[in-house]
Structures are given as structure tokens and as C-alpha cells.
Write a structure and sequence with these properties.
The structure holds 2 protein chains of 2 kinds. By secondary structure, chain A is mainly α. Chain A has helices spanning 9-25, 29-46, 52-72, 90-116, 119-129, 131-161, 169-200, 218-238, 256-289, and strands at 79-83, 86-89. Chain A has 2 domains: 4-118 and 212-289, no CATH class; 131-200, no CATH class. Chain B is an all-alpha fold. The longest helix of chain B is centred in the C-terminal third of the chain and has 33 residues, at 194-226. The radius of gyration of chain B is 17 Å and the shape is globular. Classes of the chains: A mainly alpha, B mainly alpha. At the A-B interface, helix 6 and helix 7 of A face helix 2, helix 3, helix 5 and helix 10 of B.
């Protein structure tokens, strides 16, 4: 295993998107705290402790977001105090804190994502996965209006030749089929010409080169598999009744499944940090041997 | 176009993508993701079918030419879907598959569903349509030899395709109603869908009969002329 930064872009995106995605859809206090801790740890480890300003900003953001909810939402049974005749409830405060936790956690993960995935890595990734898809989609979408224009042209030409004289349904049907047949020939020939012209201009002459060396190693496959398993375990474990916030706060029932889901997510959220730590330990070990 | 050189990997992709990965993705998409995220699943299926397509040839030039032909046939499918009541999508997909290979058929089918739904409405049904048309194209490609030889078999394939498409889409209907799969509901959905099933089968037969000759001959000609 290597540091996450050194892995294939696909692995980086998948891991961080899985963590961020799960955090964004689950309103679960335990899971979100884990996600927040994981996100902050990963940031701290990558920046040798990190900048104080970043922590302060996120703490302020957390406070504002957490306090905003009880000011606007007055649901819940337990009234803490009353401001301007509006009750401020414990439940709304708790919900606000969990929501703030989610937003701050996701922000930390996206921060790491944008730091790890520099633009050249995105290009490397998209040129493998999606530039073809983009090409086929745009080719097909371009052909649709082209069809319309060409059909009109063929029909005009056939009219000029003297076809479609009577308003006869059989005649029109036969005419439609004739146009269809012409169109198919045209589109196939045109397609080949397009393909040859693309080829002549060097489309697909070897893989697109990228600035960074991108290689899919065995560790990438392993990490992807692990991420998929952990994500599936988390979602399966947390599926069903969740934490209830209103009218009164109650945790979801503690089942072995749920515990397993939490454990899986713990591992997933700490995975980037663990990779970073392993590398640091290895580095120190090798240096101590010199 | 990417070329996959290892024969074993190609083989694995050719079997794994259409029969394992895409169905899994579609089912997971329907069960796990909420309904808003269907477009991600659709694009996932599209990427996978492109990969499958890439597993279908060995030379790059062939790949590019075939890719553009697939794009053209897809556009034809999309335009064909504008015809009221009778849909030629399955027929065109099947014919493309017969002449350009099963993988090209899968790609044509799945892309037709994706692109035409930009006009007809995207929804959680899109991945199912992609899978359905894709697989029907794939099977037509596998059966290319008998299907080109016998007109009767082609008609029978049209009927089979209509029924199979309906059977698959009803899986989506049940999942959409119920959140989980239920056999009695599935049976009911199949029965209520009979008029649609008949119309699918009918339009498949009609268009296969009408288009087999023009499209088939022309695709064959292009294939011979340019060595796709």
C-alpha cells in the first residue's frame, strides 16, 4: 500500500466520494462524528498538524450552523428557553449539531479531495473513463438534427424528380420507406467518413498521455474492493430505522448489524489516515537504517 | 478508441459486464440509491457498456469506425422512437448487433435508451431500459448466424424480444411500487402489461421484417467495403 496521494486517481476519487457520499445521506450522529474525526485527522496528518486558521474557521462554521437550526425550527418537546415568544428546543439544537457535523465533515473531505485530485489527475482519470462516452454521446446527439436536415433535403430532391404526385397513402408510405433507406445509406457512409477523418487527425493514436504517471496497481484494486465492501457493509448496517430527532430525540436501536455498520464506516473513514501513517512509519524505519 | 489487448481480460469483460456488473448496478441503483440518483446509475451503465464494446475488437481503426457507426445507429433509434405506438428501437439494435457484433449491439441499445430519454424523460426506469435493450442487442449478436440465415427465426426473435423486454421492465414496475420484490405483484404487473407486450412484439416483428433487408444489406455492405 502507498499513500492515498500516490494511488491511482480512480482509487482516490472512489474512497473519498464513498466517505463523503455516505456522510451526506446518513443523518446519524455516531456516523457523522466518525466522519468528522476521520476528515479532520486526514487533513491534520497530511499537513503536519494543519493550520490553526482552518480549524478555527470550521469551528465557527460548526457553531453557526448548529445554532441556526433551533432559531428557525421550533419542533420538539423539550423547551430549553424562550426567545421572543419562540421556544428553543433541545431536539432542534441536536438536529442542528448533527447537520452542522455533516456539513463540516463533508467540507473537510472535499478539501482533501481537491488537494489530492489535481487537475492533471482529473484529466488522466476522465481520459480513461469518460472521454469516449462524451464522444459517443456528442456524436449521436449531433446525428439527430443532421438526420432532420438530410431528410428534408432528400425529400425535396425526390419531389423535384417528380415523386409524390398524388395524395395517396400507399404512395406516401412507400416514399417514407425510400427516404428511410436513403438515410441509412447516407448515415453509414457519413459515419465511416467521420471515423476516417478522426483517425487521420490522430484520434486514439495511443493513449492520451498525461503529466502524472498513472498506473493501476494491485494495491488500487485491493483498495477499491475494500472500499466497496465497507460501503456496502455500512449501508446494509444502517439501513432501516434511523435516529429520530422530532418530537423527541432517540437513538436507533443498537443491533449487531448496526454495530457492524458503524465499525465498517470507522474503518472506511480512517482508511486514508491509516495509509498516510503506514507510509510515515515506513519512511522513518528506512531512514533509521541509513 | 481504447483497445484491450489481453485476450483473457477481453473474455472476462465480455461475460462479466452484461451478465453480472450491469444487472447488479441496475438492481442496486433501484434498491439502494434513492430515486433522485438514477442519472448516475444510467451513466455508470453507459460507461460499462462502452467498456464491453471496447472488449469486442482487437484493432484500433476497427474500433473507431465501429464506434461512429454505433453512434449513427443510436441516432436512428432515437429518431425512430418518435414514431407513435410502434417503436423500432429493438429492431434496429438487433440488426446492428447482427452485423457489427454483440458488443456493438449492447452499446447501441443502452445508448439509445439513455439518449432518447433526454427527449422522452429521464427517470429511474432509464437504467432498466438500457439493460433491456442492451441485452436484446447482445443476444441478437450472439445469434447472428442463424438470424441472418432464416427470416422465420428473425421474426421469432422479434416476438421473444418483445416479451423479454416487457418481463424485464415489469421488474422495475414492481420495485417502483413496492420498494422490494414481490412475486404476486410481479404476476399482476405482467398481466396488466399484456397490451404493451403485444405492441412491443408487434413492432419488433414489423420493423425487423421491414428493415432487415435495407439496414442489413447496407450494414453488410459497409462491413465488406471498409472492413469494420
Amino acid at each position: 500500500m502507498r499513500r492515498l496521494e500516490m494511488q491511482h486517481p480512480l482509487t482516490i476519487v472512489t474512497i473519498l466520494a464513498a466517505i463523503g457520499g455516505i456522510s451526506a445521506v446518513c443523518m446519524d450522529p455516531v456516523l457523522l462524528s466518525v466522519s468528522l474525526i476521520g476528515g479532520v485527522l486526514f487533513y491534520a496528518v497530511r499537513h503536519q498538524g494543519g493550520r490553526v486558521a482552518v480549524y478555527l474557521t470550521s469551528a465557527a462554521l460548526f457553531a453557526v450552523l448548529a445554532l441556526l437550526n433551533p432559531l428557525f425550527s421550533h419542533n420538539g418537546k423539550t423547551v430549553l428557553f424562550v426567545v421572543n415568544n419562540a421556544p428553543v428546543t433541545l431536539e432542534a439544537l441536536l438536529y442542528g449539531m448533527v447537520a452542522a457535523c455533516m456539513i463540516v465533515a463533508v467540507l473537510y473531505w472535499f478539501r482533501s479531495l481537491s488537494e489530492l485530485m489535481t487537475s492533471d489527475k482529473w484529466i488522466a482519470l476522465l481520459s480513461v473513463i469518460s472521454s469516449k462516452l462524451a464522444l459517443v454521446l456528442s456524436l449521436s446527439l449531433r446525428y439527430i438534427p443532421l438526420f432532420g436536415q438530410q431528410i428534408k433535403r432528400v425529400r425535396q430532391a425526390q419531389k423535384a424528380v417528380g415523386l409524390y404526385k398524388d395524395e395517396n397513402i400507399m404512395d406516401r408510405l412507400r416514399g417514407g420507406l425510400r427516404i428511410m433507406s436513403t438515410m441509412i445509406t447516407w448515415v453509414l457512409e457519413n459515419g465511416i467518413i467521420t471515423a476516417d477523418s478522426m483517425e487521420a487527425r490522430g484520434y486514439g493514436s495511443g493513449r492520451r498521455t498525461t503529466y502524472t504517471v498513472v498506473r493501476f496497481r494491485r494495491s488500487d484494486a485491493l483498495l477499491l474492493l475494500l472500499t466497496a465492501l465497507l460501503t456496502a457493509a455500512t449501508l446494509a448496517g444502517l439501513y432501516g430505522a434511523g435516529t429520530v430527532y422530532y418530537p423527541s430525540f432517540s437513538f436507533a436501536a443498537w443491533t449487531p448489524w448496526r454495530a457492524a455498520g458503524y465499525a465498517a464506516f470507522c474503518l472506511l473513514a480512517l482508511l486514508p489516515t491509516i495509509l498516510e501513517w503506514t507510509e510515515a512509519i515506513k519512511w522513518r524505519y528506512w531512514r533509521s537504517k541509513i | 478508441m481504447i483497445v484491450i489487448r489481453q485476450r483473457r481480460l477481453r473474455r472476462m469483460l465480455q461475460i462479466g459486464i452484461p451478465f453480472v456488473l450491469v444487472p447488479l448496478l441496475v438492481l442496486l441503483g433501484a434498491l439502494v440509491f434513492d430515486q433522485q440518483r438514477h442519472l448516475i446509475v444510467s451513466f455508470g451503465v453507459a460507461v460499462l457498456s462502452l467498456l464491453l464494446f471496447a472488449a469486442g475488437f482487437e484493432k484500433r481503426v476497427t474500433g473507431t469506425r465501429r464506434l461512429v457507426l454505433v453512434a449513427a445507429m443510436t441516432a436512428l433509434c432515437v429518431v425512430g422512437r418518435l414514431i407513435p405506438y410502434l417503436k423500432p428501437v429493438t429492431a434496429i439494435t438487433a440488426l446492428t448487433a447482427i452485423y457489427l457484433g454483440p458488443e456493438a449491439g449492447f452499446l447501441t441499445g443502452s445508448l439509445s435508451a439513455l439518449i432518447s430519454n433526454f427527449y422522452f424523460g429521464q427517470g429511474p426506469w432509464t437504467p432498466f431500459q438500457m439493460l433491456g435493450w442492451g441485452l436484446l442487442g447482445l443476444f441478437a449478436g450472439y445469434l447472428a448466424k442463424p438470424l441472418t440465415r432464416s427470416r422465420i427465426l428473425l421474426i421469432l426473435y422479434g416476438i421473444f424480444a418483445g416479451v423479454a423486454y416487457s418481463v424485464l421492465m415489469d421488474v422495475w414496475t414492481v420495485l417502483w411500487y413496492n420498494d422490494s420484490f414481490d412475486w404476486t405483484l410481479y404476476g399482476a404487473a405482467l398481466v396488466t402489461a399484456i397490451p404493451y407486450t403485444v405492441s412491443y412484439a408487434l413492432s419488433n416483428v414489423l420493423f425487423l421484417w421491414l428493415l432487415a433487408d435495407p439496414i442489413g444489406r447496407k450494414l453488410n455492405r459497409v462491413k465488406v467495403k471498409y472492413g469494420v
